[in-house]
Amino acid sequence: MERRNTASNRVVFLALFILAALFLAPVLVVLMNSFKGRFYISETAFLPPTGSMFVGLDNYFNGVDKTAFFNAFGYSLYITVFAVLLICLFNSMAAWYITRIKSTYSSALYYLLIFSMIVPFQMVMFTMSKMADMLHLDTPTGVVVLYVGFGAGLSVFMFSGFIKSVPIDIEEAAMIDGCNPIQVFFRVVFPILQPVVITVAILIAMWTWNDYLLPYLVIGQKYRTIPIAVQYLRGGYGSKDMGAMMAVLVLSMIPVIVFYLSCQKYIIRGVVAGAVKG
Amino acid sequence: MQKVLKKYVAFFTFPTLLAFIIAFLAPFLMGVYLSFTEFTAVTDSKWVGIENYIKAFTSGGDFLNSLWFTTKFTVISVISINLLAFLLALLLTRGVRWTNGFRTVFFMPNLIGGIVLGYIWQLIINGILYQSGVTLTTDPKYGFWGLVVLMNWQMIGYMMIIYIAGIQNVPTELRDAAAVDGATPIQELFHVTVPMVMPSITICLFLTLTNSFKLFDQNLALTAGAPGKQSEMLALNIYNTFYGSIHSEGIGQAKAVIFFLLVTVIAFIQLRLTRSREVEN
């Protein structure tokens, strides 16, 4: 921070400025093409939508219609919100128990959860989706249940890392004052966990909102979340409606960008904390 | 407290345990077992020993091809992402104007989902290739470099954030001492900054390595493996073996087990190698 306005910093600024423009360009090109007639898109991807190319909001009406986009938005939102809530609730409860009780059960569960973090999804995708069918979990609520199990590795790891640094004295004092463990957890422990709850909530929200394969395999035939809706537009090979695709891409990015700009501070802090732990 | 809390084991851990068994533990164990059997649903399995593992490598050769494709992609992506992210982190810790704005822009692609990213880059790359009369799926090399560019765009900002945090943690006295001792900026970089941010480098290498190796959504959206199966990465190859061909679920599951073992081995080797080079502080 010591050298602010040197000549070299001006060069660096210019380089960063050009690079930032390049980083934004793909998103802007998609936005621009979303106002173009479908047959112009592949041929003139980098020209602005002028004259006969301009079709107004047609692609948006078309895309929303073809993919039932607002239903997809609803399913994505439902799954993400409930996955975040239940993971933060159930996994923090489990993490507290595992951290405070030293037993074979605790450490077995802990290491199994950690182990699940490195296993690639392809290893379990077939058997998991069959299992979900058998247990009638092939609904958006069922997907939430699967996320609670599949997300448990990361979130229990993060929660218990934090709980280890919380002095046990406060909890014991509450116990002596007559609280039972359920009261201790909800009145004393959970409020202390707030920073790590925000981190976990952000990591889980980013994962579940963007996840394609798990919901596709489990509920993809009946319910389309946003990534499934986008992929659905691909259709048979070569037959895809590029106009509708551009519009749906823009619509899928809007919620993400709004979320990013409104809680950027927490998101960046969250992913750094998540990365450092993981 | 221990004694009282122990009575509440069901209340605190069973919701997570139950979901974990359904979503992961049972499917994982079933998956390992089924890789040694022939099956179409999970209930009609017939033991075939290691036949599926042999077939994984011998039938079609597409598995080895995807393994090679994935390996090349991973090596190039890991190197390019980390070099560029580290460079950006250095540039963004010099107190240049608009530092926060740049950080916001560079990180943004990381939040967009893989499927959406794939179609964004399909448009861009096809738009560029259109000038030369070819498309992304004319030759697997376009799909390959397309994926590399996409992955860089997605992950550079994320790694940059981690490197920035690492660089900001380097004590100023160390750099001042190096400067007093007459170190050039290059010497300072390689003898002070790099050793001090080794923990960040470990994390970033680990994240880029596993994310590149396990890539699926972006691969499916960008080329879906075309032309033929030549731009198919491992995860997509396994997916297509399960769902894209008949009576090959056993082979798909065997490939999945091999994939799991590869990911695990890579992760452990990588962690050991870089952990041993970290500076104690």
From TrEMBL, chain A:
Residue ranges constituting the ABC transmembrane type-1 domain according to the UniProt record: 73-263
GO CC, one annotated term: plasma membrane
Localization terms from the record: Cell membrane
Pfam families named among the record's database cross-references: BPD_transp_1 (PF00528)
InterPro entries: MetI-like (IPR000515), MetI-like_sf (IPR035906)
Keyword annotations: Cell membrane, Membrane, Transmembrane, Transmembrane helix, Transport
Stretches that traverse the bilayer: 12-32, 75-97, 109-129, 141-163, 184-207, 242-261
The UniProt record lists the keyword Mitochondrion: no
Leader sequence segment: none
Coiled-coil positions: none
Gene Ontology terms describing biological process: transmembrane transport
Main location: membrane
Keyword Cell wall biogenesis/degradation: no
UniProt-listed SUPFAM superfamilies: MetI-like
UniProt record similarity statement: Belongs to the binding-protein-dependent transport system permease family.
Name this polypeptide is given: L-arabinose transport system permease protein AraQ
Protein source organism: Caproicibacter fermentans
Taxonomy of the source species: Bacteria, Bacillati, Bacillota, Clostridia, Eubacteriales
Gene: araQ_10
From TrEMBL, chain B:
Principal location class: membrane
Keyword Transmembrane: yes
Location of the protein in the cell: Cell membrane
Domain of life: Bacteria
Pfam family, one: BPD_transp_1
CDD domains: TM_PBP2
One biological process term in Gene Ontology: transmembrane transport
Domain ABC transmembrane type-1, residue spans: 67-270
Membrane topology, from the record: Multi-pass membrane protein
Key words, A-Z: Cell membrane, Membrane, Transmembrane, Transmembrane helix, Transport
InterPro entries: ABC_transporter_permease, MetI-like, MetI-like_sf
A Gene Ontology cellular-component term: plasma membrane
Residues annotated as transmembrane: 12-36, 73-93, 105-130, 142-165, 256-273
Stated family: Belongs to the binding-protein-dependent transport system permease family.
UniProt xrefs under PANTHER family: ABC TRANSPORTER PERMEASE PROTEIN, INNER MEMBRANE ABC TRANSPORTER PERMEASE PROTEIN YCJO
Protein name: L-arabinose transport system permease protein AraP
Chain's gene name: araP_3
